[in-house]
User: Fold UDP-3-O-acylglucosamine N-acyltransferase from Chitinophaga hostae.
Amino acid sequence: MQFSALQLATMLDGKLEGNPDVKVSNIAKIEEAGEGMLSFIANPKYEEFIYTTNASILIVNESLVIERPIKSTLIRVKDAYSSFALLLEQYRYLTGNKSGIQQPSYIPKSVKMGENVFVGAFAYLGENVVLGNNVKIYPGVYLGDNVIVNNDSILYPGVKVYDNCIVGSRVMLHAGCVIGGDGFGFAPQPDSSYKKVPQIGNVVIHDDVEIGANTTIDRATMGSTVIRKGVKLDNLIQVAHNVDIGTNTVIAAQTGVSGSTKIGQNCVIGGQVGMVGHIHIADSTKINAQSGLSKSITIPNTSLTGSPAYDYKSSLKSQAIFRNLPDLEKRVKELEEMVKQLLQERAGV
Amino acid sequence: MQFSALQLATMLDGKLEGNPDVKVSNIAKIEEAGEGMLSFIANPKYEEFIYTTNASILIVNESLVIERPIKSTLIRVKDAYSSFALLLEQYRYLTGNKSGIQQPSYIPKSVKMGENVFVGAFAYLGENVVLGNNVKIYPGVYLGDNVIVNNDSILYPGVKVYDNCIVGSRVMLHAGCVIGGDGFGFAPQPDSSYKKVPQIGNVVIHDDVEIGANTTIDRATMGSTVIRKGVKLDNLIQVAHNVDIGTNTVIAAQTGVSGSTKIGQNCVIGGQVGMVGHIHIADSTKINAQSGLSKSITIPNTSLTGSPAYDYKSSLKSQAIFRNLPDLEKRVKELEEMVKQLLQERAGV
Amino acid sequence: MQFSALQLATMLDGKLEGNPDVKVSNIAKIEEAGEGMLSFIANPKYEEFIYTTNASILIVNESLVIERPIKSTLIRVKDAYSSFALLLEQYRYLTGNKSGIQQPSYIPKSVKMGENVFVGAFAYLGENVVLGNNVKIYPGVYLGDNVIVNNDSILYPGVKVYDNCIVGSRVMLHAGCVIGGDGFGFAPQPDSSYKKVPQIGNVVIHDDVEIGANTTIDRATMGSTVIRKGVKLDNLIQVAHNVDIGTNTVIAAQTGVSGSTKIGQNCVIGGQVGMVGHIHIADSTKINAQSGLSKSITIPNTSLTGSPAYDYKSSLKSQAIFRNLPDLEKRVKELEEMVKQLLQERAGV
Assistant:
């Protein structure tokens, strides 16, 4: 896709300075932008680049003062950052705006679809699947029987959703994530083997959730594993059976949450964190990367770090002393010698 | 599927109290069950729910005493929990009991299949693949050349098994797991680059193994990476080349086992554990979540925690003091001042 | 495939001792090789096996002295290990040498292909995809619009590459890895929800890179996430947006690298390591498994361990004392009692 400076200025209701016919087909950071590219300057720190960039078009603030000749065509707007973000979104929308049913795909008669749906080739829909309006099912996606995907959701290539799971509206599931695999439940037997506990629940993903590539969310033993509105999960995260993650909580990559643990809303959880099962994490908890949570957090707004995790500031102090443990040990040794001498002198007197 | 109270009572050889025609189409926990659902009470703690639940049918123990009117139809059996578990299994079996070959799928003439096999659409079977009786290959599964899958095994959507790997009987491979990818073996070259060491072994998975979603098990350099009978692996686990995991060992999510390490039988290994290569873990070892194993464990039945991991109880003691390190450091400082004073007084005398 | 001893001796320019017509169809370690198999002896430690092995053919050094009767046919060469490695590579090449376009696959007219390309069934190529010579696209691979895969690269089953990403020459992407998923970028909103920051950059993978099964590499917000020449990534690794990994750096399984972090060349990074975003790791840094990097490493050739990570040797010393913390605490307590007594005596005088 190509856009002329005139088209962009019209879209953004901006004031054009320079050649209105120059065209761009790509977007880049100001320090990397070349000919045929669009960029922007919002931060005064980057203003120096305006005289050296090869970007064909720049979106800048109304107030920007130009002191020397420049190569780029300018579009002046009230808030350059907001205008640029708006263009990014539209760019992403236009380049991702697929629709129609590609062949071969596997779609039983019992499937119900809304308007403007995209189903890519090699996608597989089970019996009674329901797809809302504007849903995009990329190639190679698998949806088990009775899966529901609500309006405006996007399932990227190779996503697998097992039977009976429910996906909300405006949800984005990235490539390779697995929703609704069996929870890890086994009953030990007298002969040291394990018997599988059937996992007959499902996963319910509420609206506005984004789930990263190759992340796995297990179905509940009974009932539902629940991912609430606005939750953002990064890549390669493990969410076990019957977990409940609260509204607007974000979790970074490779974190694991064990079975039946309930995480509050507005939590911010780092990468590679581990949580044992059956604990509660209070609202607005902040957990540092690589922490290990073995107990419930009952007070909202707590910050934690370490494995086992505890209060962030105290933990940092312990860590600092940990680094100097050889020194501390040496100090104790010296004290022991001095005290020994004092005691000997006393005895000797 | 729908079942009437009479059908269920007959199946379970139970005694029916209430309307024999009431029907259920779903299963739920007693505290969440609504109309049209089946639930059970085995634990006396939950008996109070019997007067408030909307479950249409309840499975209860013969001995249960009802003191007030209830809405549900009861089926009385000797052991409510066992009867319910039996129903769960049958439910799971019936809802998952697929068979036949869906189109399009890719099945060369050299493939051999047993009876009652399911092959989903977009599944790919390599040359000389052998599928035993009742094997279920879900949509989008890939089996390389010469792969063998024995009786009653289930490969969920998007499982990938590379050439020459062998899958036992009653094995369950969850969506997205990768069996037999190349081991991570590279020989350093004089120019600082690495040369790939060809990985020509395979993976052998014995009977009754379950492997979680997106878990990866690498093929051996030569010989076999071996997952023994009854092993249960959770999601997102990494098993490197030439690893050997013993009978009935269970490993929680996101654990990684490096090359050539041999894990004994009946071990219980937590999530996010890491093990270096070329070590041996004795039978019945218990390893806490997030531990790091850098040495062999030679004594069976040991419990470990920490990174690096050592004896569980000792490690907990060190962790407790770690939390109080700032206090310990303060005590040493106070001692230093007191001893300094004592020494000065002595010198002053 | 079968090879006779005579064929192999000719290929390796070796001297044949024994039956020239004996055939092998498989390769194994000397201690595991049976009839119909080829093995080798390079290390004197393994020479004892020569009298007991059932291997049909053995590759051995010219100089090897045989003292008792043996069953195997020998091929004597200058360097048994090199000759064997050569055979391994050829074996791997021959068994993996697929070409042609399998059906059904999805290939728009805008796709451009070099010579001798393999595209497996159920593979999906987006608009304007370019495949170089000898590229192998296994079944079920997804390539988004405008993806370029250069000569001699292999994409194993179920690999997903999003729009606009670039894959170099001689690259190997293992099953299930996801290249170019959206970076994890969200702007917090006044109502505690998050707004997605569009991710419009791409991933650029240079030549000779190998990437493990189910590893995920996110596209840049703008610009490129870059994996440089010769990098080797193991399975289940997370590489976030705008990361840059330097030439010939190797990273073991389950490590995570946060956004915009830049790793130098020739680094050796263990498994389950975590790195925060926006740091720089100097060339030739060595990072122990399970370490956590929260700060830049500015001095090349540093070795680190721990979480938070610091100098390897110092960290080992602290870890040793950590194990004895209960003892250290006891020593401090004893000192306190002795000093208290000394002080009391002084006061009492």
About this structure: Chain A has four helices and 39 strands.
